[in-house]
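All the exercises in this workshop are built on plain-text protein records. Instead of coordinates, the fold is spelled out as a row of discrete tokens. Once this layout is familiar, the rest of the handout is easier to follow. The record below serves as our worked example for the rest of this section.
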Amino acid sequence: MCRIERWLVLPCMFALAGACSEPPAEPFVEGPAFQQVGVCPVVTVNPRVPDIPAPRACITNTIQQAIDRVRPGGVVRVLPGMYAEAVVIDKGLTIEAIGSGPAIIEGAPTALFGIEVTATDPVVIRKLTVDCCVAGRSAIRGQGLVDLTLEEVTVLHAQIGAEVINSALNTGGRARLVVRNSHFDGGSPPTMLTSVFAVTDVDALIEGNVVRRIQTFGCIQAQQGANADVMGNDVDECGLANGGLAAIAMSPGTVVNMIGNTVRNSTASDSRFGIVWSGSATGRVERNTVLDYVQPGATPIPAGIGVFGTANPTVQFNDIAGNAQAGLRKLPGVLIDATCNWWGSADGPSGDGPGSGDAVFGPVTFIPFATEPIAGTNETCGAPANINAPPVVPGAIASPSAVADSEDPFPLRAIE
């Protein structure tokens, strides 16, 4: 074969002695800058090629080498294959799987992390699969003042799917976490304790994800000082402790919005909550579907939606039905707005309510209520077609409790 130089195209010429021969191969060097590690704008990772030394740094066979060789803000493109490694991202970049098959980071079961992000510049991870850390901690972890986005990522079997933990006392600011259109599966039997975990000084958007088979702590969890928008997720088999969506031990001033999620319990486990709030956060719980979640054997004091401590969310436009012991349970203390929900019956909630739908207990305003499912519509309390709308009055207050207003009736378990 004749060598074709990029700056010149010449036809092969035949000499008297025969066909032209290819000149000796030269090292592939894009330019002087590319002879140094860390300056490639794009690095391709192919597990089926031998390692290429640094002067030809823009292709390699491991993800970590690609991270080391790409320049800040660059792109690492990962071809399909298995990558037996744990990686550290210490610069802003984008890592994306390309090609027709999965690109899987398969770390050792005892690895602490599959991907650890320490960079403060934006990091985007797209379409990778991470299967690791069954006896470690996190498939993907950001520590400190990170800006981490996960898109179309698949996480299997790790104890924690994806987490960002940050303390502003140490870093001077708030971290950012976006998890969008990703899939988390703890396996059978489940090994994952929670799929997405935002802790302390973190602003999070958790949107459009599918979560299955979580062992203990709940499918999606915000904790302490994290602000979070949890929107349009589909969660199922969410563990016995904190249930489907959880805002746990929240600090005063934090805001969590849970909007448009579907919370399932298809295996009819004794999981205690579809949605649970604990601590002092405010926010909105709207347009969620929590159907047939709480089973008769669930203990203690379970509910489709549970609100404890001094948490004060607005709970509206949800479908809350088929929950065996309570649709909504609120501790004595702050009155919360739970109007315009569908309780599974046209005559409203039972318990402290007047009807035969899911029970409501505690200081809750539940009138007006929807007379048919509302979560999947654009209906509001101003639409009389499916809203029972007498004057808004507080729901009956539960009997005095031995539990103080600011306490939870049981220790909700939070991940350390």
In short: Residues 63-69 form the longest helix (7 residues). Residues 58 and 143 are 28 Å apart (CA to CA).
